[in-house]
Write a structure and sequence with these properties.
The protein has 626 residues and is an alpha/beta fold. It has helices at residues 2-16, 29-32, 43-54, 56-74, 76-90, 96-147, 152-157, 160-202, 204-251, 253-258, 262-314, 320-361, 422-429, 452-457, 473-477, 486-495, 499-503, 522-536, 552-566, 601-607, 610-618; strands at residues 383-391, 397-406, 411-415, 437-442, 445-446, 459-462, 540-544, 570-574, 586-591, 594-599. Among the domains are: 34-361, ABC transporter type 1, transmembrane domain (ABC transporter transmembrane region fold); 465-537, P-loop containing nucleotide triphosphate hydrolases (Rossmann fold, 3-Layer(aba) Sandwich), CATH 3.40.50. α5 (76-90) packs antiparallel against α12 (320-361), α8 (160-202) runs antiparallel to α9 and α11 (262-314) packs antiparallel against α12 (320-361). The longest helix is centred in the middle third of the chain and has 53 residues, at 262-314.
């Protein structure tokens, strides 16, 4: 029993200071994240959520350390009072030598109080070092994870740069909000209780004066400072907007140069920077007004304490030591209140920034897993679009009562003019969009009833414009299956005819491809995407213009790899080069959101319908993709 009791403090402090992470470790952050379907949108509730799940022990340790430090500090004026009174009583008398021992005791007590308070504050700072950086990362990771759960429509309507900035701002402001609680607020409350009790016990009148001033001061500041939230949110929004515009322009630097629009873009950005500057000026003028008001209130208190203290000392109501205690303790409490009010302005500004970030990022997901959603049980890969009605957010209709069945293992090509709905059909399959009516079924399971992750894990896609990360080409290829062996990566690259251009790079598969794959050509990016699909090895395969960026020779080589990849899988292929899908089991011609005709290539040519006309017109050429 004794050993268990002795080990308890060690276990507690081990939670405060966990061992340093190994190189490349995520410091346990991902393992600690709590799965959530919704995050609190209120800033205070959000901070409480993170603290409660990850930092409760550290937070209450901080509060306790600051409370102890402030309690010790509150006794400093009391100790100083007794030191001064002891000196005054013994000065010039025969008892001076006898009083030396008492003076020394109060002298040492003052040093203990001063240094002891400082030690506990340093201990609190040490705990904060173990908590704040980690909390900043936790907040950003939570918001990043929630952000990735949004539908494609959400990202179409919001700047990527603005979203990224909001996630980073939320991490920093959450720390500021929490520090306001565990340091300034705790310090003020303890100082008011302990210091106020000491002052009331020694000099009740001054305790009443100080307490009344504190209440009036805090209520006045809180009422005026609420406007700071509105101004802070406005500034945060303007900063995010101008940042988004800046990132958008930088991302299109080649386009700007191509049209010689550098000055145009500078003027265009200047309008948003001007709005940001005006919002900043409004906030800063308001802060100046607030600080003038606070300084005036502080002056009133200090002059009142001085006047009353001098008057009562001369009248013999209080001793010189008592006056010293009243003034120092009153000044300490007043300065703490003033510091809190200064921080209150920062607090409201941070609350405004955090509120604006949470309102944007934690918008309820347009598409989310239903309660009780189960993983997709993929057995064969049969796909059915059943009575589908779909229109985009602007009300533009795409499908009305569309019906299409793709049998397990069937290879279907989708063709048709731009806007016919080919890519939209694929997005409905992957539940990037949801139909207004009807349902999409995979092996008889409605995709709206299964988990989003399991649905997308069952589908491999090679899009027209493949996305790649600013990471080594190896990591991009095995992104769908990070545990894939090196030989799997190389084999996929060989089959996708990507191995040659990768091997010619000085760093081979360790080559960093650049932001959005800028160091690769369009064809190289597409071959990396094909290799990635090969590594994923999913039962359902979607090819959305998978060879559109390849030259004729590369396309011919990759066709063999793609046909090998298609074997035993359900395939949906969108193509503008009809020759690339002529060998499909069935070709579906879409126009205006409806199926005009469908069947094997030879049969459609024999009918002489829309597909045959397109084939004859193309003669190996091109049509636009939807």
């Amino acid at each position: 029993m004794f050993s268990a009791i002795a080990a308890a403090p060690a276990r507690y402090f081990a939670r405060l200071w966990p061992p340093p992470p190994k190189s490349g470790d995520d410091d346990g952050m991902l393992a600690e994240l709590v799965p959530v379907k919704a995050l609190p949108r209120n800033p205070v509730a959000f901070v409480i959520f993170v603290v409660r799940h990850h930092f409760a022990a550290k937070f209450w340790t901080l509060v306790a350390l600051v409370a102890i430090a402030t309690t010790i500090e509150a006794f400093a004026p009391f100790v100083l009072k007794n030191l001064i009174n002891t000196l005054n009583a013994a000065q010039g008398t025969a008892e001076a030598a006898a009083a030396a021992q008492d003076v020394m005791l109060w002298f040492l007590a003052f040093g203990f109080v001063w240094y002891g308070s400082s030690l506990f504050i340093r201990a609190a700072e040490a705990v904060d070092i173990a908590m704040s950086p980690r909390m900043r990362g936790q907040v950003q990771n939570y918001l990043f994870g929630y952000l990735l759960g949004h539908s494609p429509r959400y990202f179409q309507e919001n700047f990527a740069g603005k979203l990224g900035q909001k996630v980073k701002q939320a991490g920093q402001t959450s720390i500021g909000v929490l520090q306001m609680v565990w340091f300034e607020t705790t310090r003020l409350l303890v100082l008011m209780v302990v210091g106020g009790a000491l002052l009331f016990a020694q000099h009740p009148f001054y305790a009443v004066v100080l307490g009344g001033w504190t209440i009036i001061y805090l209520v006045s500041v809180a009422m005026i400072a609420r406007h700071c939230v509105t101004l802070s949110k406005a500034l945060s929004d303007e900063v995010s907007t101008s940042t988004g515009r800046l990132i958008d322009a930088i991302g299109n630097a080649d386009l700007i140069r191509a049209f010689a629009k550098r000055e145009f873009e500078r003027r265009f950005l200047g309008r948003f920077l001007a709005d940001e500057q005006n919002a900043s000026k409004r906030l800063r003028w308001f802060l100046i007004f607030m600080r003038v008001f606070m300084a005036t209130m502080m002056l009133v208190l200090l002059m009142s304490l001085l006047y009353l203290g001098i008057h009562d000392t001369l009248a013999g109501v209080i001793t010189v030591g008592g006056f010293t205690m009243v003034f120092i303790l009153g000044t300490s409490i007043a300065r703490t209140v003033q510091e809190l009010s200064y921080r209150l302005l920062d607090f409201f500004e941070q609350i405004g920034t955090l509120t604006e970030a949470l309102e944007l990022v934690t918008t309820p997901h347009e598409i989310a897993d239903k309660p009780g959603a189960k993983p997709l049980a993929l057995t064969a890969g049969r796909i059915e679009f059943q009575d589908i009605d779909f229109a985009h957010g602007d009300g533009y209709p795409v499908f009305r009562g569309l019906n299409l069945i793709i049998q397990a293992g069937e290879k279907v090509g989708l063709v048709g003019p731009s806007g016919a709905g080919k890519s939209t059909l694929v997005k409905l399959l992957r539940r990037q969009f949801e139909p207004q009516a009807g349902q999409v079924l995979i092996d008889g399971q409605n995709v709206q009833d299964v988990t989003w992750d399991s649905l997308n894990e069952s589908i491999a896609e090679v899009p027209q414009t493949p996305g790649v990360f600013h990471r080594p080409v190896r990591d991009n290829i095995r992104y769908a299956r990070p545990e894939a062996e090196e030989e799997d990566v190389v084999r996929a690259a060989l089959d996708a005819h990507a191995h040659d251009f990768i091997s010619k790079r000085p760093t081979g598969y360790d080559t960093i491809v650049g932001e959005q794959g800028i160091k690769l050509s369009g064809g190289e990016r597409q071959r990396v995407a094909i290799a990635r699909a090969l590594v994923k090895d999913a039962r359902i395969l979607v090819l959305d213009e998978a060879t559109s960026s390849l030259d004729s020779e590369s396309e011919h080589l990759i066709q063999e790899a793609l046909w090998t990849l298609m074997q035993g899988r359900t395939v949906i292929a969108i193509a503008h080069r009809l020759s690339t899908i002529a060998g499909m089991d069935r070709i579906v011609y879409l126009d205006g959101g409806r199926i005009v005709e469908q069947g094997p290539h030879d049969e459609l040519l024999a009918r002489g319908g829309a597909y045959a006309k397109l084939w004859n017109r193309q003669m190996g050429g091109f049509i636009d993709a939807a």
